[in-house]
């Protein structure tokens, strides 16, 4: 079975326990040899796959208890297998959602780390830096490169700490493992959305065309 999580930058695949990625620009040339079960936040790709019988869209089968309007399928899938905790999907954007007793209480969206770095770069070439993964967010920076890293990371971590309290925090997405290091009660799980997709297929196999 092949699973695929389609974003705005990459399509991420899981097959036989191995994760691979394909740039969205190359996706239209992808010809699967077996059916692919997918979710997509990319409307252009979604439209492209609409009549392709090799691709099974799982979005119509996902459902969580929430009053949030317009909750994206990526966030729904990330929350689907979590009963209690804070779910952080740190990719092109950073989405944060709270689950309590299998009820989605709400959440928010931040620009992703790469998006923030690009914003700094657009201000001045002197602010074109790479993130310092070893930045000490408890000490004021003493050089510009660290100041940019601090300015990006500190607000994210502070806001998350305030929101999470003593709850478990589940991190996924490309920057999830990095952000998880700032939390004692963190669980870093790159497979989180895929686990939810697998859970859904198991629970609703009779409804889904397999």
From TrEMBL:
The keyword Transcription regulation does not apply. One of its GO terms (biological process) is coenzyme A biosynthetic process. K(+) binds at residue 89. It is found in: Cytoplasm. It comes from the Bacteria. InterPro entries: ATPase_NBD (IPR043129), Type_III_PanK (IPR004619). Homodimer. Belongs to the type III pantothenate kinase family. This is Type III pantothenate kinase.
């Amino acid at each position: 079975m092949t699973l695929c999580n389609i974003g705005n930058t990459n399509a991420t695949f899981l097959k036989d326990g191995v994760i691979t990625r394909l740039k969205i620009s190359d996706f239209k040339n992808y010809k699967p040899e077996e059916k692919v079960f997918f979710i997509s936040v990319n409307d252009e790709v979604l439209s492209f796959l609409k009549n392709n019988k090799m691709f099974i869209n799982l979005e119509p089968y996902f459902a969580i208890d929430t009053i949030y309007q317009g909750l994206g399928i990526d966030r729904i899938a990330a929350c689907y297998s979590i009963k209690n905790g804070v779910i952080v999907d740190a990719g092109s954007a950073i989405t944060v959602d709270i689950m309590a007793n299998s009820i989605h209480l709400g959440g928010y969206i931040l620009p992703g780390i790469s998006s923030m770095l690009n914003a700094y770069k657009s201000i001045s070439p002197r602010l074109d830096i790479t993130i310092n993964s070893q930045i000490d967010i408890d000490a004021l920076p003493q050089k510009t490169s660290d100041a940019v890293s601090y300015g990006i990371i500190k607000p994210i971590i502070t806001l998350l700490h305030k929101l999470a309290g003593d709850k478990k925090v589940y991190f996924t997405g490309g920057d999830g493992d990095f952000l998880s290091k700032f939390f004692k009660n963190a669980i870093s799980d790159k497979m989180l959305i895929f686990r939810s997709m697998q859970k859904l297929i198991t629970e609703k196999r009779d409804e889904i065309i397999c």
